[in-house]
Specification:
By secondary structure, the chain is of the alpha+beta class. It is built from 11 helices and 8 strands. The protein has 2 domains: about 210 residues, Trigger factor, C-terminal domain (Trigger factor, domain 2), CATH 1.10.3120; about 80 residues, Chitinase A, domain 3. The protein has a 4-stranded antiparallel sheet with strand order 4-3-6-5. Helix 8 packs across helix 11. It is globular, with a radius of gyration of 26 Å.
């Protein structure tokens, strides 16, 4: 469900649950949570994967999915002067976003940075503003490709731009970065798989209404903060603002679909939290004061703040809700440690 990504920041962020642990346990029938099968994920970066990453980092041609900076000038068929609104300098475009008419973005795939590309296209029927079915020529130049390091990986690039002295040292540094990301991705995939298995194996007889309302409000807040951030970047890129309806249109959903999605997220997160609490209750898993103080100190230090109070205020925590998050982490660790790992099928 691609559209759900922006809503589910963390599948189980528990709020104010300690006081209702016994109550939630009574609403949950636990199935298998020990010995569940989880997919074994390779945590190595092969030579082939490294070569593919380096080929992506070092190039001068546009590929599908790139974000590029370009200049373009549009001419209607037979005209020698650009038409109004058909030109831009330093325009940021994501290839594959379908921002422009058919053929524009596809026509830039394979274009080299700095070279001029001419696209002979036709405005679609129903485009409006008198452009329907008119032929148009766009003269484009790609100025840069975002996140591409350089046209070619050379010793000169390595020694002039990095702390490394050889190309091989640089390659191994890239491999290490890829491995760190791969481990993070594997942990996220494992977390999702655990949730899927537990919600499939365990029955929640009735969702706690108060808890469900908390999760609904969290989903709404997360959606609103995501949209606010999206608005900011959209404005920085285009200098334009979007209405709420226009934003939903860009996301490809209606208000009714968004409302349904928010409710689905609230239901799923409530169910997962109740299962985790029931496991904690049955296995007598708790967060000790020493664990709480240790983790709190790590978080305060890691965020560059001076006191727990500053940390709580900035990130919306209380002592109770922070302990709740630690409890969920401990339950997750318990389930993962007691799982059976199987190799991924090809």
């Amino acid at each position: 469900m691609k559209k759900r990504v922006f809503l589910i920041a963390a599948a189980v962020m528990v709020a104010s649950l300690f006081g209702c642990k016994d109550k939630e346990s009574g609403n949950v029938t636990l199935g298998q949570y020990k010995g569940i099968e989880l997919t074994e994920v390779s945590e190595e970066v092969t030579d082939e994967e490294l070569a593919e990453e380096l080929a992506w980092m070092f190039r001068d041609k546009v590929i599908d999915g790139d974000t590029i900076n370009l200049d373009f000038t549009g001419y209607l068929d037979g005209e020698t002067e650009p038409f109004e609104g058909g030109s831009a300098t330093g325009y940021t475009l994501s290839i594959g976003s379908n921002t422009f008419i058919d053929g524009f973005e596809d026509g830039l795939i394979g274009a080299k940075v700095g070279e001029e590309v001419t696209l002979n296209l036709t405005f679609p029927d129903g485009y409006g503003n008198g452009f329907d079915n008119k032929k148009v020529k766009f003269v484009c130049k790609v100025n840069s490709i975002s996140y591409v390091t350089a046209p070619e990986l050379t010793l000169a690039y390595v020694t002039e731009n990095t702390e490394y002295t050889t190309v091989e040292e640089y390659k191994e540094a890239v491999r290490a970065q890829m491995l760190a990301q791969k481990v993070m991705d594997a942990e996220e995939a494992l977390y999702t798989e655990v949730l899927d298995k537990l919600t499939a194996n365990c029955e929640v007889k009735k969702l706690d209404e108060k808890l469900r309302e908390q999760y609904y409000q969290e989903a709404v807040t997360y959606y609103e903060s995501s949209i606010e951030e999206y608005h900011y970047y959209y404005y920085m890129l285009t200098g334009e603002t979007l209405s709420g309806d226009a934003m939903l249109q860009m996301l490809g959903i209606t208000q009714e679909q968004l409302d349904a999605e928010l409710n689905t997220v609230a239901d799923e997160n409530t169910k997962a939290a109740m299962i985790f609490l029931a496991i904690a209750d049955k296995e007598k898993i708790e967060v000790t004061d020493a664990e709480y103080q240790e983790h709190l100190a790590e978080y305060v230090s890691g965020t560059g703040l001076d006191t727990p109070e500053e940390f709580f205020e900035k990130y919306g925590y209380t002592e109770e809700t922070f302990k709740n998050d630690l409890l969920i982490d401990k339950v997750m660790e318990f389930v993962v440690e007691n799982a059976v790992y199987v190799k991924a099928t090809e």
